[in-house]
Write a structure and sequence with these properties.
By secondary structure, the chain is an alpha/beta fold. The protein contains 5 helices and 5 strands.
């Protein structure tokens, strides 16, 4: 998957606008090119189950003019797993680890605000899923500066 060594993709913030607008269609492209065939575990706090998460992803594809029934899209939707939970709760990371199964070389994709990065790293480490992994950060670092009003 992706580079021949990654065996799971874990997307934190998987029910947000970035996932809806960009991530799900991009994942279909990766499946279509034959570089994504591992579980894709979405982690978010939306009160959803797997069925609703897959429906959200399918709606995202339709919004982006991708047929959810096309072979690559259907395959991507089948790879999806979902963990609903608070990123401050260790149980969320335990559930994530269960969804990952035997995967040990994950790519963690952070589509969350920067203040959550450290907490996610601690949670992933706390369930023994930090060694040999990679992290991709989607959000910009720092803060936007706005000049004071005169």
């Amino acid at each position: 998957m992706l580079d021949g060594r990654t065996d799971a993709l874990v997307v934190f913030g998987a029910t947000g606008d970035l996932a809806r607008l960009e991530t799900f269609p991009a994942l279909v492209g990766l499946v279509d090119r034959g570089v994504l065939d591992a579980p894709v575990i979405g982690v978010a706090k939306s009160g959803w189950d797997l069925h609703r998460f897959r429906d959200y992803a399918a709606r995202s594809l339709r919004e982006n003019r991708v047929d959810p029934g096309a072979p690559a899209a259907a395959a991507m939707l089948g790879l999806l797993r979902y963990v609903d939970g608070d990123l401050d709760d260790d149980a969320t990371y335990a559930a994530m680890a269960r969804e990952m199964g035997e995967a040990r070389r994950a790519l963690y994709y952070l589509e969350v605000p920067p203040f959550l990065f450290g907490r996610i790293a601690a949670g992933v480490s706390g369930v023994g899923r930090a060694e040999g992994v990679r992290v991709m950060v989607e959000k910009p670092f720092g803060a936007t500066w706005k000049a004071p009003s005169p």
